[in-house]
Amino acid sequence: MSAPFRQFQAFHAIIEHGTVTAAAEHLGISQPAISNLLSQLERNTKLKLFERTRGRLVPTPEAHVLFDEIDTVVRGLDHVNQAVVDLQNQTAGQLQIATSHALAFGFMPAEIAKFSAGRPNLTIAFQSQYSSKIQEWVTAGLFEIGICEMPVRMEGLEQHPFTIETSCAIPRFADVAEHERLNPMLLNDFPFIIMGADHMVTRRTREAFHTDGANFRIRGHTDLFHNALNLVKQGLGAAMIDPFTLAADGGGEYLVRRFEPAIYLDIVLITARGRPLSIIGQQFLDQVVPRLKQIAVNTDGQ
């Protein structure tokens, strides 16, 4: 015996919804079509599945046993069908994105929340990590989209670069707080919290001090802009901080000042070359790239 799935689906709908009328409405077919499918199933199985009592179909004990056996299968296919509809309507799928820590505290969660509105079945894979690891993940296909710091050292990655200006955060009661703009001479011998000796922001700040003949005094170093800002709050020194970290912070015992000459942070959005983006991934890029352009001071295209 082999019964087509549509017959099982009609049988399942009748029991679940109680009447042929309701089952037909659920499946989007006519009542005669439902009745015909049920008759075919009874012939194929050689089982009496319903008693006709006062114009209603009452399931037999055999029908209940059969229903229990096919319930998971039918619901599973319904779930698959709904997933197809959701994908067609672009309300489902998975957003896979990895970012540097700076973007993870406020900017990216806000962008993900905005993107998820109206997509109730969207699942999200979101991680923050160091730039080299993000490049490895995107290359390996573990994440579809990555945002990290330059340089890009992995082969086979499409690159969308953005140049971001940092600002100087200083303790609220620092002697230089009266100045609206800071420069190396004003901060001569002022203690700094840096992002490691080889970080691009540290190198560029050091070069600016050296050019002006000022002493770049390093008091401490850390691996995250967020950590550096917290040390500034404690009055331990100044730090060059990216706008994403500043925007995500609640404020506190520090002030933010423009620094001259400008110290830039180069970031890049990466995707795997030769691997087509999902519809969801492309739509997220269409949202987030313009937002990054608004923040960036200079952009080399998408």
Summarize the topology.
Elements: H1 5-17, H2 20-27, H3 31-45, E1 50-53, E2 56-59, H4 61-88, E3 92-99, H5 101-104, H6 107-116, E4 121-128, H7 131-140, E5 145-149, E6 157-165, E7 167-171, E8 181-182, E9 191-194, H8 200-212, E10 217-221, H9 225-233, E11 239-241, H10 243-248, E12 254-259, E13 264-272, H11 279-295, E14 298-299
Parallel strand pairs: 3-4, 3-5, 8-12, 9-10
Antiparallel strand pairs: 1-2, 5-13, 6-13, 6-14, 7-11, 7-12
Helix pairs in contact: 1-2, 1-3, 1-4, 2-3
In short:
The protein is of the alpha/beta class.
Helix proportion? 40-55%
Strand residue content: 15-25%
> How many discrete domains?
3
CATH superfamily membership of the largest domain: Periplasmic binding protein-like II
Task: Report the radius of gyration as a whole number of Å.
Answer: 31 Å
Order of helices and strands: HHHEEHEHHEHEEEEEHEHEHEEHE
Number of helices: 11
Shape: elongated
| Low-confidence segments | none
Average predicted confidence as pLDDT:
89
Largest β sheet strand count, sense and barrel closure: 6 strands, mixed
In whole angstroms, the N-to-C terminal distance is 59 Å
Helix/strand/pairing class, anyone? alpha/beta
CATH class of the largest domain: Alpha Beta
Q: Order of strands in the sheet with the most strands? A: 4-3-5-13-6-14
According to DSSP, the number of beta strands is: 14
CATH architecture of the largest domain: 3-Layer(aba) Sandwich
Fill in the CATH topology of the largest domain.
D-Maltodextrin-Binding Protein, domain 2
Describe this structure in words.
The protein is of the alpha/beta class. The protein starts with a helix and ends with a strand. It has 11 helices and 14 strands. The longest helix is centred in the first third of the chain and has 28 residues, at 61-88. The strands form 4 sheets. It has a 6-stranded mixed beta sheet with strand order 4-3-5-13-6-14, sandwiched between helices. The model has no long low-confidence stretch (mean pLDDT 89). The radius of gyration is 31 Å and the shape is elongated. Helix 8 links the parallel strand 9 and strand 10 (217-221). It has 3 domains: 5-88, Arc Repressor Mutant, subunit A (Orthogonal Bundle); 92-163 and 266-299, 3-Layer(aba) Sandwich (D-Maltodextrin-Binding Protein, domain 2), CATH 3.40.190; 167-262, 3-Layer(aba) Sandwich (D-Maltodextrin-Binding Protein, domain 2), CATH 3.40.190. 44% of the residues lie in helices and 25% in strands.
